[in-house]
Prior knowledge:
Strand content: under 5%
Mean pLDDT: 83
Low-confidence stretches: 1-16, 480-545, 547-564
Number of helices: 19
Strand order of the largest sheet: 1-2
Distance between the termini: 14 Å
Amino acid sequence: MVTAPPAGKPAGPRDGSVNGMTAKLRVAAISVALLVATGLVLLIVRPSINPAQVRPLPLLVGAWLAFVAAAWLLRKVPRRTSVALILLGGIALQLAAVSAPPQNSNDLYRYIWDGRVQAAGIDPYEYVPSASQLTGLREPGFLWLANGEYCVKASYVASQPAAELAPGCTRINRPTVPTIYPPVAEAYFLGVHYLPTADDSTTPIQATTALVAVLTSVLLLFGLGRLGRDIRMAALWSWCPTVALEAGNSAHVDVVAVAITAVAVLTLATARTRRRTALGGVLLGLAIATKLTPALAVPALLRRRWLTVALAASSAFAAVYVPHVLTVGTKVIGFLPGYLQQEGYSGGTRFALIGLFATSWLAILLAVLILGAAAFAVMQFGNPDRPWEGAVVMTGVALAVTTPHYQWYSLLLVMLVALDGRAEWLAFAAAGYYAAEPNMGRFTVPYRFHDAFAYGTAVLIVAAGWLIRHEIARRGLGTARPAPVIAGPAVSAPVLAGSAVSAPVVSAPVVSADTAERAELAVPVGATTSADGGPLAGSGCDEDQFDAFAPRSASVRRRPGVRV
């Protein structure tokens, strides 16, 4: 309990020194943790400076532990200092990732190729990379080279005369199939193509995607502040090793889709007019037309003016496809059907957790039922003012059902967790790395079970987090304690004849670890929300502060006239 010092005796300098020293120690510890995480990311992307030849997975575990420690320590750091740490730490991680060519994925070579094809005036869905019609776009030495990883041999070309292919080796994976990326992603590839050296180097597209990741951190800081939520939660995106590796190093277009989704979610969460709702719907449609994964946020975003959101999103999605449909017709579907078949989804063999109990068509049926039930529950019970809560659940369930090998599929979840604050859901992002690279020597899980082990562990971590929150709420430990009133008694406004009685005002200082923001508030008793139902402007109230195990909003109550 905090009490005021005796009258006439101000607090001694020792208290301020201790508080200042504690803050400095926290900042120093966070800086060390971020340096460790940055160094480990550097070792992952530059194996040549790893003299001990440590496997990537232990390095990833170390980077994640450093990230978790830094995020935990950030909770009690003053907000202004937190903003600097969040941005500088995120930039440092991205610079480390950009410093080397891609290590975990080669998808960006297809991005560069699609940009080159479009710059030549050819629709990216028209021909596959190995098509004979595109031989004039092949340059020797970067995308196309004699010792490329993916080769189309002359014997294969002769056996497929109808495909009109030309032999050659390339860095582009699956050179005999069409692109899978939607139109907004293709527009992004074309834009990056015009950057200096973007046609013969990976650095420009890596740097661009890293910049998008940093701008997403800035967006989250502004968005969380506007929502009255703890801006420190932006660190869950900015410092996450997944964001560094999949943005700055692998340059996955998912980062662009996530950035657009973040704008859409923030717009729709605060929309109070039909026009603003339509704008959020358009942004959502563009996000889905960049990568299909943002569609997982749709059930949570249909809770308010669902028809307006659905019409705006579908219209934007269709509009960007129209020019390509007019040019190439059904070829705009690209490699999506083939991808689902190659990954085992169409045959029901790819669902690792469901596969423990069922396979084939029964596994597909169970996957559809689980995803359908999750979508229905989110649409039925989700909070339209906090759509990220339902979107986190929907995205997490989808990862648990589909158990992908591709760790960048969790980028959407990482952004949503930064808005939501339930850090345990990040376990799914970590699980993707184990599913992709489970090699731990003699401790490696048998191949047939490693996907189920990775995502099953994530499910258990999320369940444990829910149980802890539920228990805290049940015992009442999550109820926020009001700050003590140190000022004088409440003062009632004078009552004028014939007028309504004004609400009494309580003046109380804010008791917070954030010393930079200590100030007295004067709030009318009972005035905890604004006219539109949101938090009272300037109150700084937030049910869910940045705490890995803070209970949900139902268990946190605001006290009138006091900042929580």
